[in-house]
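Predict fold of DDE Tnp4 domain-containing protein; 155 aa.
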Amino acid sequence: MPEYSLQQIFAVTPSVCTRYLAFAMEILLDAFKVIPEAAISWLVEDSEFGDYAAMIELHHPLLQKGFCFVDGVNIPVAESEVDDIQNAYYNGWTCSHYCSNVPAFAPVGCLIWCSVNGPGSWHDAAMARGLYDKLVNRTPEGYYAFADSISPQSS
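Predicted 3D structure, encoded as tokens:
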């Protein structure tokens, strides 16, 4: 929701709205730090990969050993006054300014990996480099992530 909408809904000035949003983000961050379930972490046990793959296979029998879903999300951002920053966040394909994010979700809905706040000019594949490392080095043989164009066709 745009900040100006919050200003209108709650009848506050821009400076007050900005202050409360920053305050709320600090509280949210503090809460997430003490809630283990809020952690974004890669799977540890091989059995977790199997459990998640089984959940997906239950609904889609032809999809075996896929354990998570990955897709890029572009979040609109304001244009910067600084040309270099504006250029970095400009996405020529959509003709707008974005902040790029690539989350990986387990079938239970939790995040198991993410790359956030990248320049909008970056392709999802560039944002997902850390994910490739996890898939190659910390994923049991045969398991894979469901993705679209972020993934190269070769192994």
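The chain has a mean pLDDT of 87.
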